Amino acid sequence: WDAAYERELQTFEDIGDAGEIWFGEESMVRIIRWLERHEVPLDSSVLDIGTGNGVLLVELAKSGYMNLTGIDYSPSAIQLSEKVREKEGMSNIKLKVEDFLSPSAELSGFDICIDKGTFDAVSLDPDDAAAKRQQYVSSLGRALKPGGFFLITSCNWTKEELLNEFREGFEILEELPTPKFCFGGRIGNSVTALVFQRK
């Protein structure tokens, strides 16, 4: 990931392109619309897990959210998101190099946690992915306050699989609509987007 974000950082410095938006812009719109529809207060503390280029946080800030934190274990990703934040003039976004699987003590008490592809990446780790997924769920339980919301977008997991992964400590609130496709006479989704609430 460091190498990928170093390339994106160089591209941003060269031509001002912030890089790829995971799951496309509609995934950010979907998240922001959900927050607005549920009248989530603008001063709610929001954690973007695996923030990458930080573009989601910038869009949240443009929508009026003001207590925003982004973490990524890649220092290059945080450097890139800092540059994107500066370019957009969003000084209220906090960014930190942090490994969500072994988070610092201050990474707790958030009202909202958002994941667009980080759980997917953790799940693909060739070194004991099952244990890392368990660690992720445990870290999420510490980061998110009771009653807080967890919005996850995944391309690796179905709704049923995610319900199983997050069954301890979280309950499903809603499945967000995502683009559908038809293959072999069956209809499916290439992306799953769910909202959980911490018990």
Automatic annotation (TrEMBL):
GO BP field: methylation
Domain of life: Eukaryota
One Gene Ontology CC term in the entry: cytoplasm
InterPro entries in the cross-refs: Efm4/METTL10, Methyltranfer_dom, SAM-dependent_MTases_sf
Residue ranges of domain Methyltransferase in the record: 45-174
Cross-referenced HAMAP family: Methyltr_EFM4
PANTHER family in alphabetical order: EEF1A LYSINE METHYLTRANSFERASE 2, PROTEIN-LYSINE N-METHYLTRANSFERASE METTL10
Protein name as annotated: EFMT2 methyltransferase
Native species: Sclerurus mexicanus
